[in-house]
Design a protein that fits this description.
The complex is a heterodimer of chains A (about 180) and B (about 160). With about 180 residues, chain A is mainly α. Chain A has helices spanning about 10-35, 40-55, 65-85, 105-125, 125-135, 140-150, 155-175. Chain A contains seven helices and no strands. Chain B has a domain at about 10-35. Chain B has four helices and no strands. Chain B has helices at about 15-30, 45, 65-90, 145. The chains are: A mainly alpha (about 180), B mainly alpha (about 160). Chains A and B meet through α1, α2, α4, α5 and α7 of A and α1 of B.
């Protein structure tokens, strides 16, 4: 893992490093933040916030940038949750009507479906959400997840199976229609 | 868990169904903006679209911008006015400081010239101008009416 030192903002090498790191790790960070908040947009904001703070950071050299970014994003998410910001936004899919291939009805149906699953995901505990996100969003192996979750690969498989089952149960309780 | 495929609502889906279903969900859930490069502060200025530069033909005359033309015109006007005022002052001599009456004579506020001593000033009417018009006003017996025709000049 890259362990870049903090530096001044005029350093082109540092800018380049941040760009590269963002390209390679933003998706992973988003998935982990998503597991925390079950909100795609908010998780994306947390990623941006973490990288922006690192961009402006002029303190001691950062030894583990991934851990640093995770901590910053996590703290930001907690702050946001504490403030209970009730921003009245449209569904993410409804923000931009341009470029739609499907009809508005199909889009609405998809948005409704996504929201139902989000709701069900929120019912899971954070570790269950994490394994689901890492598996189905990041496509990580059980061994990779085991490192992050600090447990064995077998335990990850068991947790994954349990999380999937629990989610299915919640969705059935909600009257969710599988297609 | 019921492993048999079942798409009816109220029934548990199979693992395969759940897998496909979760993959689709996360594909739709991930923001498209994540694929964009990191937008650091101030990047908007750097990423401004390039300005197309066209070379100016050599024979095209350029004029000053409107604001500059206004400044030049104002300056010329002010200079012209100052010039006119300066000429006026030069021709008229020093301006009078006190108010002037209708006959062009200075009033009592006017300062006396220092070159004229007090004894050279002529006493015109020690008794005023109304009641003693027919009486002599000086030692030589000249009345006030008669003094009107006398040209007053200080003695040298």
């Amino acid at each position: 893992m890259t362990n870049p030192a903090s530096g001044n903002e005029q350093d082109p090498d540092r800018d380049q490093m941040i760009d590269t790191y963002y390209r390679e790790h933003s998706r992973e960070l988003w998935a982990l933040f998503y597991a925390m908040c079950s909100d795609a947009e908010r998780a994306y904001d947390a990623v941006q916030e973490a990288f922006l703070r690192y961009y402006d950071y002029k303190g001691e050299p950062v030894r583990d940038l991934r851990a640093w970014l995770l901590r910053v994003g996590q703290n930001w998410l907690r702050d946001v949750a504490r403030k209970k910001s009730n921003s009245c936004g449209l569904l993410p899919e409804m923000d931009d009507f341009s470029g739609w291939q499907e009809s508005a009805e199909d889009r609405l149906k998809l948005a409704e479906r996504q929201e139902q699953i989000r709701k069900a995901m929120r019912e899971l505990n954070e570790d269950d959400r994490k394994v689901l996100v890492m598996k189905y969003s990041m496509d990580w192996s059980a061994a990779q997840m085991a490192i992050v979750m600090d447990c064995s690969a077998a335990a990850i498989d068991m947790r994954l199976s349990r999380a999937r089952r629990r989610l299915a149960e919640i969705l059935v309780e909600q009257g969710f229609e599988y297609e | 868990m019921n492993d048999s495929p079942n798409s009816q609502p109220g029934r548990m889906p199979s693992d395969d169904q759940m897998e496909g279903f979760l993959r689709d969900f996360f594909v739709a859930e991930a923001p498209a903006a994540l694929k964009q490069p990191f937008r650091r502060p101030g990047v908007a200025q750097i990423m401004r679209p390039p300005v197309v530069c066209v070379s100016r033909p050599a024979d095209v005359r350029t004029s000053l911008p409107r604001s500059r033309r206004m400044i030049v015109a104002t300056a010329i006007s002010v200079m012209a006015m100052l010039f006119v005022v300066a000429i006026q002052i030069k021709n008229d001599g020093p301006p009078q400081t006190g108010p002037v009456n209708g006959a062009g004579m200075a009033t009592s506020n006017q300062t006396l010239p220092s070159a004229a001593p007090l004894q050279n000033l002529m006493l015109v009417s020690p008794n005023g101008d109304a009641k003693s018009a027919v009486h002599p006003v000086g030692e030589d017996g000249v009345t006030l009416e008669e003094t009107d025709s006398i040209e007053l000049k200080p003695q040298r």
